[in-house]
Design goal:
LysR_subst-bd; alpha/beta; LysR family transcriptional regulator YdcI; 15% strand; D-Maltodextrin-Binding Protein, domain 2
């Protein structure tokens, strides 16, 4: 699974979340790349990444993506 994340998330909460995920799903490999919001959106739309973790504020740019708010 390929994850794109803002640098603050990649260095902040993401290592803990990945550690917890790996304990439950040992057979799934996670790859993390740090990206800015523009790169996250492009990566999600192109299929380069499966999950994007960032601040998305423009609904028009996010059209066609499945979104879930984890932390409001």
């Amino acid at each position: 699974m390929r994850i794109g994340a803002l640098p603050t998330a990649a260095l902040g909460i993401l290592p803990t979340v990945i550690g917890q995920f790996h304990k439950q799903q040992k057979d799934i490999t996670l790859q993390v790349a740090t990206m800015n919001n523009t790169m996250l959106l492009a990566g999600l739309k192109s299929g380069e990444i499966d999950i994007g973790i960032g601040r998305m504020s423009d609904p028009e740019l996010m059209s066609g993506l499945h979104l879930r708010t984890v932390v409001p």
